[in-house]
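Newbie here. two chains, one complex. Structure please?
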Amino acid sequence: MKKYLRFFSVVTKNEFKAIRGSGYRSIIYLSVILYLAFLCAGFSNNALIYQNKLAGNPFSNWVNIGITRMNRDSAEQLIQVLSDTVLKNRYFIKNRYLSKEFGASFLDREGACTGLPLPKVTTIDAGSSLVHDLLNKNNVVKTWVTGNVFETEPLGFVITEVVLNRLGFNPDSVTCLSYRLFGDKYVPVPILAVVRELPNHADVLCTDSFYMLQMHNYRDDSAFSKLFIDTRNVETANRLSMVIRKSTGLAGDVPVYDSVKGFGRSLHVLYFPGKTAEIRRLFKNKLRSLYALQDFRNIHFGTYCELETDTFCNKTENSQEFRHNLNFDFLAVEFSKLDSLKAFSSYIRTRYAMSVNMETVTQRQNYLYSLNISLGAIILVLTLAVLSISIFLSNILKNHLDRVKRNLGNFMAFGTGELKITGIYMLVVMKILSVSTILALLLAYVSGELFDRYLLKHILVLETDQDFFSLFNPWLVLFLLVVYAVAMTKTFITVMLLVRKSPGDLIYERESKTY
Amino acid sequence: MPEDVFVIEGLKCSYSSNGKQILYIRDLTIPKGRMTVILGRSGSGKSTLLEALGLMNNTIGRGAVNYFSPGGAIDLARVWKKHRKVAAIRRDYFSFIFQDDYLMPHYTCSENMLITGLIQQKIPAGNTTLMLSHPLQFLNLSGNGLLKQMPGQLAGGQKQRLSFIRAVSKDFDVLFGDEPTGNLDYTNSGNLFDFIREIIHERKCSAVIVSHNVELTVEKADKILVLTPSPDKTEALFTLQPDHIFDRNPHNRWENFNNSQDLTQYIKSIL
């Protein structure tokens, strides 16, 4: 194929060489500015996402009103009043419920009872919209139930990943926990969901029903030793029972497993009447290590009770009485908007002599403030970067045009159109900007990822599940669009202002109006 | 087919920046296929006239300037209203040589010389050396790998000659020169004028040159225009009086003068 020389390509090539500077100086300077801007955009974007996550925490949209012996009567009145639609609309109240806080003990993976500090359990109204909020995809780690977890299984737990790890369990391999009722008596409780965070800095969330049930409604006299296997597979339970039979010399006609009553899933409990000592020894010495790596690896040995759900159901027919006896610790009020919160606080202080715990709201407001500051800072930094790039490009272009304006006048005298010259310089600036952008993107990607993975997560040990850097984000796209638009516009104006002069004025360097 | 390339009537030239009437020409014709040289003292409007004719600047204040291009007559006073047309006329019909070389310092000599041709059309990459060999040889620039050198590596005279080759690397109808010999010695100036004559002869085109060198002008030009101060200053500061237009006759002699020396003396006396 015949190769041709073209004015456009010859001039573009040479002008690119001249403007990029010796040793690619201009490209290096520009790359450095872009690199810093990309890093800023990459880190800022994730910082904003993180802050947004904190500020948008669904659990921080409410206030707690403490209930004590002194204000219990006022609290009861307030609960009645808060169901009034006018009041709810005035203060943007979305929901309210009574809550109880208590410490709980569990058997850990080694079969030992958890020590202090005890995990904090908070009760929640099973129908609360907060239950739905806390199972949003950003908060949930693992769940086995769809829909409203507590409506499916009111006698289960929602637990934080931190506490589960503290107990030695992995969210993927545990479906229930041994909850201590009293002394060394336990009850297996299903885990409905594992989450990152719970309201009120709680570790475990349960329903009012569970709280009430575990208080008194268990069969104390029939407590017996059980080996509790955390598996849904009946075959697994059978297999284990065979091993135990063999090891302990248990007679074949003695039943060894049963399903725990009152739970919506198959939690297999092997119980061994009269063989408690042997089983305990077997469990301690052999069983745990023997089956540790198999699918029924969470084996707990303890003296278990059964919750009296039947009795409880009869009693809950008069649930108001039950609830009254609970002595709730606080009234949680959820808001759809926090705009009238101060007015609400003032209202209940004057009318009911009760004070609002603003901790969560203040935290949210702080996050929002910090979010706004960060957002402003990012916009400022990126705007400065756009300005720097624009000024830098404009300067190198103006300096170059100043050097060659007589030569450009010469080109024009020979018949080059002003739009052609402008187009050439726009292409040159675009090329310089593109090369710099690619270079800066590569550098920013490598250094940003290294910074994120090694410095922040391994040396400074910040949250490991949080990405602090992501280069390709909307800020980057917006920034590049603005940079390119500004650079192109500025180049167009700068070159057009020059080439609108007549060739004679350019060649003889006369100051004149454009023709 | 008109014999003249430019016909001027009642032309007043000025610069838009100060509005002063610099030059007034009542009647003038520039002949086709010949070399016309404009003489005059500094500031007499030589370059102004050249810029007006070459569409380098809109200096035409009043009057009519008609250019008879190969494509038809063009009124240069009116054409300025259409920028694209002005650029197209310059591209298709005109070429320029200046006192300074105006070579792009970051282009190779080869690219600098070919750039005017490239403005008009694409050029096969393999033909460039062949295209440039004749003018380079004529102007004593061949050899030493000059084509790949940068202008900064050349002497001033060499650059000037390169700029001349650049001017003739394109197709044109009229060649304008604004003191092209200003930076050349007498011998090279003579060579340049000879080369212009050869180009005119070969391409059947015309040349309008501004010069300060009276001897060389009288020796090489076909028509000489001497701009002098206007006697009454009413129309403009300078003018072209009818008796300051000199034509070489078909016998290669200057009309009304016995020899070149007489004309040289006369021109020097009126400048």
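Moderator note: The CA atoms of residues 34 and 206 of chain B lie 5 Å apart. Chain B has a mean pLDDT of 87. Thread marked as resolved.
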